[in-house]
Amino acid sequence: MASGVATEQETTLHRELGRIVGESFVLGGTPERRKSERRKGKRKNQKERKTFADQLSDCAIDGVIPSAVVSPADEKEVAAILQFAGENDYNIVPQGAGTKQSIGATPQRVDILLRTHRMNEVLHYDAGDLTLSVEAGMTIAEVQGILAKNSQFLPLDPMLPERATIGGVLAANAHGPMRSGFGSVRDYCIGINFVTGDGKTAKGGGKVVKNVAGYDLMKLIIGSMGTLAVITSANFKVFPLPKQTRTFILDCSDLATAIAQRDRIIASPLAPMCLELVSPRAHEYLSAKSEVRDPDHYAPQQGMKRAEVYSLVVRAGGSDAVLNRYRKDLGEAVSRELAGAEEIKVWQRLSNFEDSIRTRHFNCMVVNAGVAPSGVRAAYEAAEQSALEHNLLSASIGRAATGSLTFAFVPLGVDPPNAMQFANVASSLRSRLPKGSAAVVVRCPLEAKERFDVWGSSANDMALMREVRAAMDPKNILNRGRFVV
Amino acid sequence: MQRPLSSGLCYNLRIPMQFHRLVKQLKKIVGKDGVLDHPEDLMLYEYDGGVDRGTPQAVCFPQTTEQVSQIARLATKENVPIVPRGAGTGLSGGAIARQGGIVIGFSRMNKILEIDIPSQRAVVQPGVVNLDLTHAVESRGYYFAPDPSSQKACTIGGNVAENSGGPHTLANGVTVNHVTGLEVVLPGGRIVEFGGKAAESCGYDMTGFFVGSEGTLGIATKITVRLTKLPEAVATLLAVFNTVDDAANSVVAITAASITPAALEMLDGWTLRAVEAATHAGYPLDSGAVLLIELEGLREAVDENADAVREICLRVGARGVRRAADEKERQLLWSGRKNAFGAVGRISPSYYVQDGVIPRTKIPQTLRKIGEIGRKYDLQIGNIFHAGDGNLHPLILFDTRDREQTKRTLAAGQEILEYCVSVGGSITGEHGVGMEKMAAMPVMFSEDDIDVMTRLRNVFNPAGTLNPQKLFPTTRSCRETYSPGHPSVGGPNATSEIHGAD
């Protein structure tokens, strides 16, 4: 956008956005300032301007710097921004905290980054009815804090809860270990308010726990990656916090034993809150954070003693009698039992697995796979073998009972990876997964991203999804080119 | 016999060729014995669990997805409405050929295609009866969780269309929480796949969006469902109260105490007396209300929660709480609840059953309001409902032959629904909008909300030939105004367990 026309467009962009939300909530400046920055580069004495440019580049998505960042205060402002963007063919990327912005294809350009952080109020909380409405920009941790005052919670434990927002988690259908016992957010989101690509403010569902009036727009918009609408608020069914919890770790000598233990738990009357399967190499990312060394070359410890076990991590909640039942039924297979702070830490680390991989390896690839429960063993083996084949190491965790898995691929220390290695391992993994599985690459080096489709094939009819997208975002301004293209 | 509501007819039903030629083509697709077109046969397909009616010109019974696709293609080409139909137990008119046209019956697509216990999934054709799936898997320790009261007859295809609930969906969720994949025929005949056995798939959640679309988006021809493990222990309690208020407050207290029963049902005094007279389930005749509470799960948890529930009910004012000693007593307690609609049918020539939902904290005040509305319109209203999730089923008794009373019944029904929405609730919890509640949609949804839904329907069903004139309030393409003619009314014959609202 170096031409004079573009500059003029940018002026209009910033002015118009300022008119909608107030100037102080638009990041991005006059074209004069931007031009002079470009000319002078990052000279130290341009302090103010540098800060300003840095702020924008901090918001870059896959290296693409947005022309403007706007923070609307409410649904009305969101609608005005989308209408304005539609009229001018501006591409919009909606964002909560950006913890999951690595998902999806690299955008060609980002005109407006729409941040929801100012929309962070509780709209309605009826503790007696166990229902809650919150705005999209509120963080998961804030929501849990509010619910905890009434001994309630949302069984939503995605990575980085202090930053991740309700809107972002819904848009990405993110989940954590509690997905196992409570279902995904689609199972307890009971209503949603949103603005369509053409600026229409609408809603689906309601505030009650049972409701079949009208189409289930919650289901459609959850997991739509910001391509159908900008979520402005959502309503949830919340849950009572268990009186107490305990975590039982079952260390198994190999994958087959771990799967057999999993099958035994699934077939038993036990109904754990969480049931995670941790591969041997994944343990390293669940222990205390080691020093981040040269991120480009850091590799997992090779010579050091490392847990060579597959672990099933089982979390149960309830009274003493219920927990005793778990102890009795799980029996001698239990290697360790955790409680209190130690227990909480383990689950935080499991939730933050992807982030832990990211902070330790600049070059890493993370895949979220969905397989049928009977395909979990094959999927873990597929990850292991695909990594071996392409000179990478794999670390895997996942919801062993539901088949929602996370596979990380990290480089060997001796061998800096190239982009094709990642593309190949993705394709190798996909070909090895049981039929009907999904494998979405949610994080990988930029150079690799250009070489393959991060989404992979879909079990859903593609042509119909495109039409659905066109119905919700007729001008194709929401996250253009990143998902369902 | 009532005719289709003429006031609702605005869909331009042009049949550009003689219908018998169409029937001939249908016979070519599904075989000679797969099509009904004699008036006396068609009469059997003109109603569902309510009494809204509409007569199709033909009913056909495909056996394969390919045949469904051919029927859909033919109907679209000829601009003839198609209406998919399971067992016809619905309560909102979803399976009624309101505009005439072709009804596609799924009684010949009733096979369980696969049972995959290691993945806790089953793949079924749409005509499989809900309870038959449970029977097929219970010996292996599993069941299909959604349990509408019509589960002995209703089909899984119909459950998918209506997103059916049931008494036990309080803890386990409704149909949409138990469907992971679909094969769907679109109105033009195209066959598409959504999801599969994996719980997570790439792309939009088309499966979740489709469930509950009331046959307006496509025709499900193959359904992948989740199977649920049978609970180790079940406890069924009957709590008896002197007043409706005490019972309602107990529901609030149980919810607040962090106990999620598998089912939590309430019958008010009038209804329980009607039920007791018919079923002898053991409900005390002089009580003001009873709660039927079921707890499921791990033995230890069930015992603890049963004790806790008993204590709460007694504290709030129950005059007694009884726990079923054995399966026989449990079945007896449930028989009263399950046959309630039939029991009411013995007393009144007709009744209007509603399906509004309210926040659970608002149950006491809403029941008082319903009492007030009953007095205001001089009508007897019985209450029997899923108290645990706030899903009301007020039964307004009336006589269809009394026009003036019918009018009052409608007005009372509308007032109850409006009150439900005004306290933050919904117009329907599990029966669907169908024909019956189209006019009430604007009470809940704005014009823009409806517009978004319309756009999505048009993606799937652009010509509107699939299940026309359902779910959406008066369409804009339609100049006439839809006026609700008849509420869903049950008479003694339409109120057996099979047709029971749950």
CATH class of the domain at 112-229 in chain B: Alpha Beta
Residue stretches of chain A low in confidence (pLDDT < 50, at least 5 long) are 1-6, 31-37, 40-44
- First-last Cα distance of chain B: 26 Å
DSSP helix fraction of chain A: 25-40%
| Fraction of residues in β-strands of chain B | 15-25%
Any idea how many domains of chain A? 3
> Regions of chain B with pLDDT < 50 over 5+ consecutive residues?
1-16, 476-501
Largest sheet of chain B: 8 strands, antiparallel
* Multimer state: heterodimer
Largest sheet of chain A: 5 strands, antiparallel
Number of beta strands of chain A = 19
CATH topology of the largest domain in chain A: Alpha-Beta Plaits
- What's the helical proportion of residues of chain B? 25-40%
Q: Which shape of chain B, going by the Cα principal axes?
A: globular
- Chain pair with largest interface: A-B, 85 and 90 residues
- Strands of the widest sheet of chain B, in order across it, are 15-12-14-13-17-18-16-19
Share in β-strands of chain A: 15-25%
* End-to-end separation of chain A: 23 Å
What is the CATH architecture term of the largest domain in chain A? 2-Layer Sandwich
**What structural class is derived from the secondary structure elements of chain B?**
alpha+beta
Strand line-up across the major sheet of chain A:
5-6-10-8-9
Considering the chains and any ligands shown, give keywords for the structure.
heterodimer, A: 485 residues, alpha+beta, Uridine Diphospho-n-acetylenolpyruvylglucosamine Reductase, domain 2, Uridine Diphospho-n-acetylenolpyruvylglucosamine Reductase, domain 3, Alpha-Beta Plaits, 4-stranded mixed β-sheet, 16 helices, 34% helix, 21% strand, globular, disordered N terminus, B: 502 residues, 8-stranded antiparallel β-sheet, 5-stranded antiparallel β-sheet, 33% helix, 19% strand, disordered C terminus
